[in-house]
Amino acid sequence: MKKIKDERLILQNLKNIRIAYIIQTLGILGILGYDLVTKGLDVMTENPLWIVFMVTVVVSAFLSMNVSVDHENQEKSSKNGLVLSLLIIIFISIVVGTLTSLSEGYSIINGVIIGGVLLICGLLPVTYVYYLRTKQQSENADE
Could you give the CA distance from residue 111 to residue 27 in angstroms, rounded to a whole number? Predict the structure, then answer.
């Protein structure tokens, strides 16, 4: 099988993949929505399609980060963005953890766990974007 070299055919193939992705996503959302309406939230999140949907959303978000960084202005300092993002994530984690531990029925341990999970989940995309920015800056410096 030969690799396609015609840019028009590559673009058409990408458009076809996008349409198939949209139809697949709508189908998954339809099935999950049906489970939500008929059986409730707990049954919907136990459905294996929920995991497929969540993994697809996360992968799509990380892939779009790459495009966003390529589209950014070259003059931005990646260190400043990293520090600001880290401060915001730490602040949000502390606030949510504190509010959780002060809520009725939750202990300080629950607040620490929820705040920690938020911190870790926030650190992953922030460090990935920082990596992409530094990689892009080093590639631009080499040119």
Answer: 36
Name the residue ranges covered by the structural domains of the chain. 1-61, 72-143
**What are the distances in angstroms from CA 39 to CA 27, 35, 43, 141?**
18, 5, 6, 56
Q: Contact 81/136 with Cβ under 8 angstroms?
A: no
Q: What Å distances lie between residue 133 and 30, 64, 76, 121, 129, CA to CA?
A: 37, 14, 9, 19, 6
Taking only the tens place, the pLDDT of each residue in 31-84 is 999 999 999 988 888 999 999 988 888 888 888 887 777 777 666 667 888 899
pTM above threshold 0.85: no
Rg of the chain, C-alpha, whole Å: 21
The pLDDT tens digits for 113-137 are: 999 999 999 999 899 888 888 888 7
Q: pLDDT tens digits for 81-101?
A: 889 989 999 999 999 999 999
Q: 129 exposed, middle or buried (CB, 10 Å; 0-12, 13-18, 19+)?
A: buried
